[in-house]
Amino acid sequence: MSRDWVVTGVGMVSAAGDTPGSLFGALIDRVPLLVKQAGTSGGGEAGPAPAIPIRGFVPRHYLDRKGLGNLSRTSQLACAAASRLAAGLAGVPPSDIGVVFGTAWGSLKTVVDFERASYVEGSRFVDPFLFAETVPNVPSGQISIFFGWSACNMTVSSGSASGLAALCTAIDLLEEGRAGLAVAGGGDELNPPLLRTLLAEGKVGANGDSLPFAGRGLGPAGSEGACLIAVEARDQAEARGAATIARVLSHEQRFAGTQGDAGTEPAGLLRALLDRAGLGPRDVDLLVVSASGSEEVDRMEGRALLEVFGPGPSAPLVVAPRAILGETWGASGPLAVVAALEAFAQARVPAPPRDLVPDARFLGLNLPARTIERDVRRAIVLDCAGGGQMAGVLLSRDEAGHAA
Amino acid sequence: MGLVTPIGADLDTFWRALLEGRSGAGPVRSFDTSSLKRSVGCEVGPYVLPQPIRRHVRGGRCTELALLAASGAVSSAGLDGSLAGRADAAIVVGTTMGDVTQFEQDRAAHPERKADERDVGTLANRPLDLMGRCIAAMLEVTGNVVTVPAACAAGSYAIGVATSLVACGRARVAVAVGCEAFSRLAFVGFARMHAMSSDVCRPFSLERPGLLLGEGAGAVVIETLGEAAARGAGPLAFVDGFGLSCDAHHVTGPHPEGAGAARAARDAIRRAGLRPDQIDYVNAHGTGTPLNDRTESLAMHGVFGEGARRVPISSIKALTGHMMGAAGAVEAIASVLAMRHSVIPPTWNWTGPDPQCDVDCVPNEPRETRLRHVVSNSYAFGGNDASLVLSSTVA
User: Fold this and answer.
1) Bridge partners, residue B391, by sequence
2) Of B165, B170, B384, the CB nearest to A153
3) CA-CA distance, A255 to A143, in Å (whole number)?
4) Chain pair A-B, CB pairs under 8 angstroms
5) In chain A, whose CA is at the least distance from the CA of B32?
6) What is the β-pairing status of strands B238-246 and B384-391?
7) Of the candidates B180, B115, B119, the residue with the CA atom closest to the CA atom of residue B154
8) ipTM higher than the 0.85 cut
9) Per-residue pLDDT at A402 exceeds 50
10) Using H for helix, E for strand and C for coil, what is the string for chain B?
């Protein structure tokens, strides 16, 4: 990369809270966040399905603006997350700030609501605001409108890797000089119809037992949230007195294909991340991965981790945040970045759920049995979506004056 | 380059339609409009999906159009079969709504049924990134697959992002696709916003009743000149600049002075290493709505200053309708064809000047002139603004 890109802010809204500390606390505590989602069935004994919604989310707690009620929940989550980092961007002209937002779904519920209203109420009476919110790039546009960030605005959709793909795209845009600071990440809403659908198709787990690498194919619990990361050049951050949280050493996106398609394994992406940063497998302390108990993703990811980093205790520690946080699609990758940033800051690595017994294929992965106190200097965040989209970033703890 | 449009599904037919003023407008066939106040749109005519393409269609009409255009572009580039297994080949897809046709057909069959998982499920099974994945599967590409749902600017975003991937070395070849299927949702939505004409689209005319909705797909293959030369291929045009900006003003309406649109065009021209007075033609976003054409005219005055009247600015949407996610890609292709034929496709259906659109909109007659550098504009909901600078291969 041509410049030294650093993370200078995080804004998030998640079921585990709206601060990096609360999120990391949930991972350390391994406290299940599951609730029985009203309006669904398909859970245990066909009762309400387990899910991890953000309980008590009130947009007005984050944004004192009119019109919040007209926004889709995805837009509300996106703007709320942006509000959490906006104050930290003082000194950067709004016209120099670009937004890149990743979303897997946009707001499907709004699409369905609009279409139905056009039939039931009549096309002349449907709410034009509702129409705007059906368009998938509108959450990103709403962020720019709310905060005046006008350098550029882009939406990226790569399934559950959307948020990390957005972060990768944002760094490309920064390298091209399209913005002086990028607010990048993503988010998606959860609603009962989407949850029911994904349950029926096995894309989220019916029991809430998200056990990464357990080989039981249970899948993650459905969740929601939004998470945005501020990235800018080190010299700019220092000039405006912003704290630098971490460095972005490299980033990469690939397509793994789906069953029967052409494709590459995530190992290629991991090697590319290391090569671009001029590092080797032993230089990485932590792997924050997307494994969630889904057979397809866990198999692909686990095999790649073992291939590139090898088995055993000398390999980097592995953390799988979806085990606790669930699948938040557009937010998942950026929330995994937050987990890595907190591991840098707290020098701790959380363990997977207590009842996890890895499948024999994954016994070589260095999954900590309990929270480990360890100096974490470099981490790879990897996101592999079920559809074959992959994104990754290699981060280092910021140690100004020290070589990464 | 490859395309599927309401006025032609091959480059030659499309180009002749632009010069002859053959419109794709007609009564909407995709859904019942009897309960709607509007009934005219620009739809793609019947097409046949060859079996090698059909077997990769996992979605509906939007995916079909995207695959057809991508296949055409790869063939015309002489790359048939040669992208297989390449991790240095990328696919970049722009769309507005993605593949919503099946959902709309299901919903039309049970309009009063309460929204449930069947509706959401139909949509969730056709996610926004489906088209890109299907194209990657068809071409057996293993590199990056990017989906940029940038609404009505998505086609331009796709070309710009693809160019950036190649320019920075993250891909050696990229297929950029803009695609959209005719959608009841968009049809009702634009009508509800009073942005849609009942019959004809008249960009830049004083009496302009609004846009007509369209559909289609456009695809281009992007590679470096060296890469093309190494395999004996000649370039059709150069993508010299890609400018981005955001209005940060209103979710559906443009900035009243076209500030973001002007910034995007200036950015594209600057990145091309050009001055505004070196631009020979602007292919406008030109939707035919009162608001868009007025603000786009203002924006171009902001870019070209006193020379604004000198630069021809035309819109092809009078014939194609607003193809939304496909528009930017198809209009970039029209711009390339204009340079290669040294003819500006006119703004058809023009009926008289609007003082608020003080531009030379090339009304109703093709204009022969040498074109070296062209700007193609695209604007979208969310305040997304994009401009491309395309340059002729003839010095």
Assistant:
1) B238, B373
2) B384
3) 28
4) 253
5) A119
6) antiparallel
7) B180
8) yes
9) no
10) CEEEECCECCHHHHHHHHHHCCCCEEECCCCCCCCCCCCEEECCCCCCCCHHHHCCCCCCHHHHHHHHHHHHHHHHCCCCCCCCCCCCEEEEEEECCCCCHHHHHHHHHCCCCCCCHHHHHHHHCCCCCHHHHHHHHHHCCCCCEEEECCHHHHHHHHHHHHHHHHHCCCCCEEEEEEEECCCHHHHHHHHHCCCECCCCCCCCECCCCCECEECEEEEEEEECHHHHHHCCCCCCCEEEEEEEEECCCCCCCCCCCCHHHHHHHHHHHHHCCCCHHHCCEEECCCCCCHHHHHHHHHHHHHHHHHHHHHCEEECCHHHHCECHHHHHHHHHHHHHHHHHHCEECCECCCCCECCCCCCECCECCCEECCCCEEEEEEECHHHEEEEEEEECCCC
In angstroms, the Cα distances linking A73 to A81, A162, A188, B185, B190 are 12, 17, 8, 19, 22
What's the CA gap between A14 and A102, in Å, rounded? Answer: 16
pLDDT tens digit string along A361-394?
A: 999 999 999 999 999 999 999 999 988 899 999 9
Nearest to B145 among A122, A138, A255 (CB): A255
Tokens describing residue B149? 């749902």
Give the ranges where A228-364 is alpha helix by DSSP (H): 234-239, 266-277, 295-309, 322-325, 332-346
Residue A259 has pLDDT above 50, yes or no: no
Q: Which residues in chain A (167-206) have CB-CB distances under 8 A to chain B?
A: 169, 172-173, 175-176, 178, 191, 193-194, 196-198, 200-201
Host H or E run for residue A379: strand A378-384
Separation of alpha carbons A126 and B193, rounded Å: 10
Backbone angles phi, psi at A143, to 5 degrees: -60, -50
At CB < 8 A and 24+ separation, what contacts does A272-278 make? A273/A380, A273/A392, A273/A393, A273/A394, A274/A250, A274/A308, A274/A394, A276/A1, A276/A249, A276/A250, A276/A251, A276/A252, A276/A394, A277/A249, A277/A250, A277/A394, A277/A404
pLDDT in tens, chain B (395 residues): 999 999 999 999 999 999 999 999 999 999 999 989 999 999 999 999 999 999 998 889 999 999 999 999 999 999 999 999 888 999 999 999 999 888 888 888 887 777 666 778 888 888 999 999 999 999 999 889 999 999 999 999 999 999 999 999 999 999 999 999 999 999 999 999 999 999 999 999 999 999 999 999 999 999 999 999 999 999 999 999 999 999 999 999 999 999 999 999 999 999 999 999 999 999 999 999 999 999 999 999 999 999 999 999 999 999 999 999 999 999 999 999 999 999 999 999 999 999 999 999 999 999 999 999 999 999 999 999 999 999 999 76
Classified as helix, coil or strand, A352 is: coil
B209-253 pLDDT, tens per residue?
Answer: 999 999 999 999 999 999 999 999 999 999 999 999 999 999 999
Closest Cα of chain B to A100: distance in Å?
10
CA of B15, closest CA in chain A: separation in Å? 31
Q: Beta-strand (E) ranges in A147-293?
A: 152-156, 181-188, 222-223, 225-233, 246-255, 286-288
- The reported pTM is 0.96
**φ, ψ of residue A123 in degrees (nearest 5):** -65, -25
A145 touching chain B per CB within 8 A: yes
> In the annotation, is B152 catalytic?
yes
Which residue, among B361, B363, B370, has the nearest Cα to B394 in the 3D structure? Answer: B370
Q: What is the Cα–Cα distance from A5 to A275, expressed in whole angstroms?
A: 17
A147 within 8 A of A82, measured Cβ to Cβ: yes
Position B126, amino acid:
R
d(Cα B95, Cα B147) in Å, to the nearest integer? 8
